[in-house]
């Protein structure tokens, strides 16, 4: 081979290797003498940077303060938990608060987080699930500032936004500032019926549609701005904004946000499939494919695809239709980009499976299994169930969501931090 040709081929290979880096990798960082993380110019141009990653911005604000932190396994900077990083930078964290699914642990292993002390750091952990969902004055005693850093998935019934509300309320009532380290919304579109006041609950605390199209920081601004806290009290917020983010920019989560949202596909299907948790249809809990498959034992004559839910410790202890063969839909290869492209949930699966189920009077019967939620609470209205039973088309159902949906979109604009 001629020398100049060999040189040309090597150059091509070098350029190809340099351009094949993964877009989702953590940004390149350097550490200053003060131990503060800084993002390189190159990564700033091309990579989305979370609030948590911007330690050079917010760590100085924490110096000399006693810090409380609301976090879970999604609260990370690169491979490290946020708490470990902040402690290494000299931040005085005196209390940690763990929401549903706990503060720290490997969800895939079903690890249980201790409810009293973090074994790695010795920091007291206060549980915020079960009967104790809101910090008490005693919980916040000695705390100068709270940090909230939890990955949300953008759906009304995903309870971390309810935890956010209660944290804001407790901070406001006890004169504690709340710092929010913002993270992207993987389901950044707006769709679904507005939750009616009658169906207010922990899985539907605010009058919003099923998908709200906001980051956790923007959502906190809306909670304050709309006067949703008790007695319209205001929480003092300090939001560390995302860099290089827009609502239309796709985002793949680096860590699963909860045990049964274990893939990006399940996260993107979740807003459409969670409604099935108020029906007799399994969403795949008790398999390694939760929120990617749908089925019921009574649908054998309608569908060929099948699966059998079993108990999975730390993931699904008592799944619906445990040890029964279910027949239905396999959505693992469904093109989830359709949700962002159209800005719409998928209602056809719900309509289709209701029509296919032989005992229609039992389809929405949430008393058949203790794991099942009330469909009307999930939907935020009783109208959706009535419309499906009466045979309304998807277009007819969607028209009934107006003018509420358009009014929400207009209200939402006041609180946006990103385009």
Structure explained in plain terms:
The chain is α/β, with parallel strands linked by helices. It folds into two domains: 29-240, Rossmann fold (3-Layer(aba) Sandwich); 264-393, Alpha-Beta Complex (Aspartate Aminotransferase, domain 1), CATH 3.90.1150. Helices cover 28% and strands 13% of the residues. The protein contains 14 helices and 15 strands. The protein has helices at residues 3-18, 41-46, 55-62, 82-88, 137-140, 160-173, 216-225, 264-273, 337-342, 348-356, 375-379, 383-389, 394-399, 404-412; strands at 29-31, 37-39, 66-71, 76-77, 80-81, 92-98, 125-127, 145-149, 177-181, 190-191, 211-212, 237-240, 293-296, 305-307, 326-330. The strands form five sheets. It has a six-stranded parallel β-sheet, sandwiched between helices. The chain has a three-stranded antiparallel β-sheet with strand order 13-15-14, with no helix packed on it. Strand 1 and strand 2 form a beta hairpin. Helix 6 packs across helix 7. Residues 1-45 and 106-114 have low confidence and may be disordered. It comes from Paradesertivirga mongoliensis. Keywords: Signal. Residues 67-264 form the Peptidoglycan beta-N-acetylmuramidase NamZ N-terminal domain.
Helix and strand topology:
Layout: H1 3-18, E1 29-31, E2 37-39, H2 41-46, H3 55-62, E3 66-71, E4 76-77, E5 80-81, H4 82-88, E6 92-98, E7 125-127, H5 137-140, E8 145-149, H6 160-173, E9 177-181, E10 190-191, E11 211-212, H7 216-225, E12 237-240, H8 264-273, E13 293-296, E14 305-307, E15 326-330, H9 337-342, H10 348-356, H11 375-379, H12 383-389, H13 394-399, H14 404-412
Parallel strand pairs: 3-6, 3-8, 6-7, 8-9, 9-12
Antiparallel strand pairs: 1-2, 4-5, 10-11, 13-15, 14-15
Signal peptide: 1-24
Protein name: Exo-beta-N-acetylmuramidase NamZ domain-containing protein
Domain Peptidoglycan beta-N-acetylmuramidase NamZ N-terminal: 67-264
């Amino acid at each position: 081979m001629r020398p100049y040709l060999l040189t040309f081929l090597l150059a091509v290979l070098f350029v190809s290797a340099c351009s094949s880096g993964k877009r989702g990798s953590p940004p390149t960082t350097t550490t200053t003498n003060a131990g503060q993380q800084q993002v390189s110019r190159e990564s700033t141009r091309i990579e989305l940077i979370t609030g948590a990653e911007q330690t050079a911005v917010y760590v100085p604000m924490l110096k000399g303060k006693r810090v409380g932190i609301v976090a879970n396994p999604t609260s990370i900077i690169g491979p490290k938990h946020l708490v470990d990083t902040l402690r290494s930078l000299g931040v005085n964290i005196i209390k940690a608060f763990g929401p549903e699914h706990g503060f720290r642990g490997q969800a895939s292993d079903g690890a249980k987080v201790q409810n009293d002390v973090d074994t790695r750091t010795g920091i007291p952990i206060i549980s915020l699930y079960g009967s104790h969902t809101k910090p008490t004055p005693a919980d916040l005693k000695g705390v100068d500032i709270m940090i909230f850093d939890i990955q949300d998935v953008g759906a009304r019934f995903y309870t971390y936004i309810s935890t956010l509300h209660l944290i804001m309320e407790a901070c406001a009532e006890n004169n504690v500032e709340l710092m929010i380290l913002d993270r992207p919304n993987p389901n950044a579109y707006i769709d679904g019926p507005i939750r009616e006041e009658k169906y207010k609950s922990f899985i539907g605390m605010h009058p919003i549609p099923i998908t709200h199209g906001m980051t956790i920081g923007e959502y906190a601004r809306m909670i304050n701005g709309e006067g949703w806290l008790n007695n319209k009290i205001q929480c003092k917020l300090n939001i560390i904004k995302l860099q290089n983010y827009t609502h239309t920019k796709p985002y793949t989560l680096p860590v699963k946000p909860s045990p049964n949202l274990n893939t990006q596909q399940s996260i993107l299907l979740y807003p459409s499939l969670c409604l099935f948790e108020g029906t007799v249809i399994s969403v795949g809990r008790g398999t390694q494919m939760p929120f990617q498959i749908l089925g019921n034992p009574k649908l054998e004559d309608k569908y060929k695809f099948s699966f059998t839910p079993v108990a999975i410790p730390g993931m699904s202890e008592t799944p619906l239709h445990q040890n029964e063969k279910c027949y239905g839909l396999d959505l693992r290869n469904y093109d989830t980009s359709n949700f962002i492209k159209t800005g719409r949930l998928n209602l056809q699966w719900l309509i289709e499976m209701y029509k296919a189920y032989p005992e229609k009077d039992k389809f929405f019967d949430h008393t058949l299994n203790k794991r099942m939620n009330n469909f009307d609470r999930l939907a935020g209205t009783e109208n959706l169930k009535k419309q499906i039973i009466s045979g309304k088309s998807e277009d007819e159902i969607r028209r009934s969501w107006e003018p509420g949906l358009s009014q929400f979109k207009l209200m939402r604009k006041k609180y946006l931090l990103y385009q």
